[in-house]
Amino acid sequence: MNLQGKVAIVTGSGRGLGLAYAQDLAAHGAKVVINDIDEATAASAVESITSAGGEAVALVGAVGSTETANALVAKAVDTWGRLDILVTNAGVLRDTVLWKMSDEDFDLVINVHLRGTFTCVRAAATHMREQGEGGRIITIGSPTGQFGNFGQTNYAAAKAGIVGMTRTWALELARAGITANSVIPVAATSMTESVPFLKEYTDALAAGDPLPPFARKELGFGTPQDVAGLVTFLASDEAAEITGQAIGIGGDRLALYSHPTMIVTEIADNGWTAESIAAVWADKFAADQQSVGEKIPAPPSA
């Protein structure tokens, strides 16, 4: 999996999943622009790559604005003359139930995740099209965006929106040879530390203990390094024919998500009224109503 000569931007790559993506891309030969809001964190990430023989530079700034997006692309192009790969990883959480969520909590998460993905992809895709050699757009979704999750109105909206935008970009960018895919990761990061059913596993990793097979296989939960290989694969020439997909990874599990599709249809001559819908719902539709929230398997009994 050779990425020699390729240049990548990874937003939110000072630590956690973003750093794992950047390090793996660099280990496979890509030159990487690190992005973080903290200068020392960004510098440490760059050092972790250069000390291992890779090439990396940093651009400090919060994603969301057009200015930051343009600065990231300019950093890549000014430093190495090109841009081939964009990974939009930057994110924040402001979790609380709907009736307690403030405008500020909603707007911050939407701005960083959704608008930040949009502005960065717009800037990168514009340059890739002008460059004329194709490219790779890799956005980061979440199981919350696929299933919903209690207390995460803002995050669910952003992550679902990211996958929707990515499918649209796959259509719009195909003629330019640019692929667009979403990665749905599950890994131990600062964002999963507060998830109650994962606590024993995050504690185990923090203590340096191996995860049990149930966590790695049934829950698909592991380390950021377990996710990074999918990002590198999607950035490579091997994935040139893969676009518009939502692909999950975590621990030992790799999964392809379905696109939304109509699962039950009925036809009524001259259209439907409220009364005619009520008349058929129980027999024709009720059994196929979809669940909400991710269904977590029960751990094996002790």
UniProtKB/TrEMBL annotation:
Say yes or no: keyword Oxidoreductase present: yes
Keywords, alphabetical: Oxidoreductase
**Pfam families per record:** adh_short_C2
Any one GO molecular-function label of the UniProt entry = oxidoreductase activity
Q: SMART domains in the record, alphabetically? A: PKS_KR
Q: Tell whether Cell cycle is among the UniProt keywords.
A: no
What are the residue boundaries of the Ketoreductase domain, all occurrences included?
6-190
InterPro entries reported in the protein's UniProt record: KR_dom, NAD(P)-bd_dom_sf, Peroxisomal_Beta-Oxidation, Sc_DH/Rdtase_CS, SDR_fam
Q: Which family, according to the similarity comment?
A: Belongs to the short-chain dehydrogenases/reductases (SDR) family.
- Please give the name of this protein: 3-oxoacyl-ACP reductase
Source organism (scientific name): Homoserinimonas hongtaonis
* Lineage of the organism: Bacteria, Bacillati, Actinomycetota, Actinomycetes, Micrococcales
